[in-house]
Design goal:
Elements: E1 2-4, H1 6-15, E2 17-25, E3 29-39, E4 43-53, E5 56-65, E6 69-75, E7 79-87, E8 89-94, E9 101-105, E10 108-114, E11 117-123, E12 129-136, H2 138-145, H3 154-160, E13 166-172, H4 175-184, H5 191-213, H6 228-243, H7 251-258, H8 262-273, H9 277-295, H10 300-306, H11 312-323, H12 327-331
Helix pairs in contact: 4-5, 5-8, 6-8, 6-9
Length: about 325
């Protein structure tokens, strides 16, 4: 078995690193992506690290080890983590006594919070592995949840308040969670549209977890109770999105602009309009694309790019699902 220390794995990652994108926004909002592509005798595949904003990181991994491998993992900063295994299998070995071995296979998920941690991730040779990891600082996790933080399990809240050292829970992924995870590996957009898409999926993953964790007596089966002020802010959000379809603000920017937590924005928007903010943008873009095709003067590629798609295939499929006809057919009078 090959064993890599934390420093050795970090070196391997940085040696194969390329910057995919970097965008700086106002109010200390960041969005950057780095991708490490491996083609070594014992590791082949990709790891993509995307900083959604300060202290929120999305890590997407898809690789295969050619040898049994054991990697030391360390975290010296307080963080909340969500892990989703979509393909393959690994194992996590903790170092705190009593040492425990946690299997992490297809449809397995972990939610954890810890001030600092150390352990080992173990991979078997020849097994394709695909997983998603979300890392939040304690403050950023609390800001995203807003008042919904009160629905967290008592033990998790105690860790966030510094009254406990760690929290760990294992759960099974639902079909909808698997579909959400897989969608992050096939982002059909580019530029700020891609950022909006990624943030929307991250917030949706988080929303699923909050709904799962909420104590039964705290769940509101009839939906959120929105105040008149929140209703007004959601209407403002709806207006902003329609006015900026070409380059909509990121979900986190939008939440800050209207004064709601990202979680409250996403859940409240869906309750009020029947769609998530991203779904509204996607729907309105297709409606705009149809109008452009009917008007003529632009080919399918030009229309696709003008409404934010980077993949002609994804645009064509989405258009067909919405209208029952391919954009090329509509353009040709079909």
């Amino acid at each position: 078995m090959i064993e890599l220390s934390f420093v050795q794995f970090q070196q391997l990652f940085t040696q194969n690193l390329t910057q995919v994108s970097r965008e700086d926004f106002s109010q200390k909002l960041y969005h950057s992506a780095y991708k490490a592509s491996f083609d070594t005798p014992y590791l082949k595949g990709n790891i993509t690290s995307t900083q959604i904003r300060e202290e929120i990181t999305l890590l997407m991994v898809e690789f295969i080890y050619q040898e049994d491998t054991k990697i030391c993992l360390e975290s010296h900063h307080p963080q909340v983590g969500l892990s989703f295994c979509l393909k393959g299998k690994s194992e996590f070995l903790g170092v705190e006594k009593p040492r425990q071995l946690f299997p992490f296979g297809v449809r397995d998920g972990f939610l954890y919070a810890t001030a600092q941690s150390e352990g080992y991730q173990i991979y078997k040779r020849g097994v394709p592995y695909q997983a998603i990891y979300l890392h939040f600082s304690y403050p950023s996790f609390g800001q995203l949840l807003g008042e919904q933080a009160g629905q967290l399990p008592r033990e998790l809240r105690q860790v966030l308040l510094g009254k406990r050292n760690y929290f760990l829970e294992r759960f099974k992924l639902s079909s909808s969670l698997v579909a959400l995870g897989e969608s992050l590996f096939s982002n059909p957009f580019s530029g700020k549209s891609a950022q909006f898409y990624t943030e929307a999926k991250v917030i949706e993953l988080l929303a699923h977890q909050i709904d799962r964790l909420a104590a039964p007596h705290q769940k509101v089966t009839s939906g959120l109770v929105l105040t008149p002020k929140e209703e007004q802010r959601l209407e403002e959000c709806h207006y902003l999105l329609l006015a900026q379809l070409q380059a909509p603000p990121s979900l986190i920017e939008l939440a800050q602009q209207i004064g709601l937590s990202s979680y409250r924005l996403k859940q409240g928007f869906r309750q009020k309009y029947g769609l998530s903010p991203f779904q509204l943008v996607a729907e309105q873009r297709l409606i705009k694309a149809r109008a452009l095709l009917v008007a003529g003067g632009m080919n399918v590629s030009e229309v696709a790019f003008s409404v934010g798609y980077s993949s002609i295939g994804s645009f064509s499929n989405s258009f067909f699902e919405k209208f029952g006809i391919r954009p090329s057919q509509l353009l040709n009078g079909g």
